[in-house]
Design a protein that fits this description.
The complex is a heterodimer of chains A (about 120) and B (about 110).
Chain A lengths: L4 E3 L2 E4 L5 E6 L6 E7 L5 E8 L2 E4 L8 E4 L6 E5 L8 E8 L11 E2 L3 E5 L1
Parallel strand pairs in A: 2-11
Antiparallel strand pairs in A: 1-3, 3-8, 4-5, 4-9, 5-6, 7-8, 9-10, 9-11
Chain B lengths: L8 E5 L4 E6 L7 E8 L6 E6 L4 E2 L4 E4 L5 E6 L8 E9 L14 E6 L1
Parallel strand pairs in B: 1-9
Antiparallel strand pairs in B: 2-7, 3-4, 3-8, 5-6, 6-7, 8-9
The chains are: A mainly beta (about 120), B mainly beta (about 110).
C-alpha cells in the first residue's frame, strides 16, 4: 500500500516562473492537506481539500497560490510568479474520513523542495 | 485548539527511555492530544494520540495526567534513529470532521551513543 506520493521531490524555478507541486494521497483517502516549511522553521498549514472542494484555505497566501483536488488525479498546489521567499519544503498529507477518535491521524509525504533562484 | 508548551530541546542516551513532556493547561474536554515527529528533512510521522487514558502502541506510550493539563510521550528504548523534532498537538475532533493540525516548535530530541 503506497504512501502519500509527492512530486517533484526537488524543483528549481527562476523568479516569475510558475511552480506546480503534485500530491497523490494514500489509496482510499479523500482528504488532502498542504503544509509549508520554511528553512529552520516549523510546519505551517496552508489548505485542506476534499475531492473537488476546498474546505479550509485559511493558511494560503491571498495571491499567487492556489490548490485543487480534482475528482480524478492528484492534488495540485500551484504557485504563480514565484519569488525567492517561496523557497521552502511543501508537504502534503492525506487522511480518510474517520470517527472522532482518529480524525487527527494524517499521513505525510516526503515533501517537495522548491528553490527559487 | 489549545496551545501547547514543550521544551525546545532534550538529550537522551541510546537505549534509555526518552520522556518528552508537553504542557496543555488550557485543554478542553473534547480535545485530543496528538504526537508527531519529524526526522530531519522527512515528512512528519504520526506517533500516537489519546483523550483521557494512557495509550501505548508499537512506537511509544502516552501518559496523560488525570487533570489532562499535561502529558508525556515515552520512547521506551531510544535509538539513534529516534533523533527528531517531536510535536505535541492538541486538537478537537468535531464529530469526525477532518481538519488541519497546528504544529508548534516542538522538542528537538537528540539521542546520543
Amino acid at each position: 500500500n503506497a504512501g502519500v506520493m509527492q512530486n517533484p521531490r526537488h524543483l528549481v524555478r527562476r523568479r516569475g516562473q510558475e511552480a506546480r507541486l503534485r500530491c497523490s494521497p494514500m489509496k482510499g483517502h479523500s482528504h488532502v492537506y498542504w503544509y509549508r516549511q520554511l528553512p529552520e522553521e516549523g510546519l505551517k498549514f496552508m489548505v485542506y481539500l476534499q475531492k473537488e472542494n476546498i474546505i479550509d484555505e485559511s493558511g494560503m497566501p491571498k495571491e499567487r497560490f492556489s490548490a485543487e483536488f480534482p475528482k480524478e488525479g492528484p492534488s495540485i498546489l500551484r504557485i504563480q510568479q514565484v519569488v525567492r521567499g517561496d523557497s521552502a519544503a511543501y508537504f502534503c498529507a492525506s487522511s480518510e474520513m474517520r470517527g472522532p477518535s482518529r480524525a487527527g491521524e494524517l499521513f505525510f509525504g516526503e515533501g517537495s523542495r522548491l528553490t527559487v533562484l | 485548539d489549545a496551545k501547547t508548551t514543550q521544551p525546545p530541546s532534550m538529550d537522551c542516551a541510546e537505549g534509555r527511555a526518552a520522556n518528552l513532556p508537553c504542557n496543555h493547561s488550557t485543554i478542553s474536554g473534547n480535545e485530543y492530544v496528538y504526537w508527531y515527529r519529524q526526522i530531519h528533512s522527512q515528512g512528519p510521522q504520526y506517533i500516537i494520540h489519546g483523550l483521557k487514558n494512557n495509550e501505548t502502541n508499537e512506537m511509544a506510550s502516552l501518559i496523560i495526567t488525570e487533570d489532562r493539563k499535561s502529558s508525556t510521550l515515552i520512547l521506551p528504548h531510544a535509538t539513534l534513529r529516534d533523533t527528531a523534532v517531536y510535536y505535541c498537538i492538541v486538537r478537537a475532533n468535531y464529530g469526525g470532521s477532518q481538519g488541519n493540525l497546528i504544529f508548534g516548535k516542538g522538542t528537538k530530541l537528540s539521542v546520543k551513543p
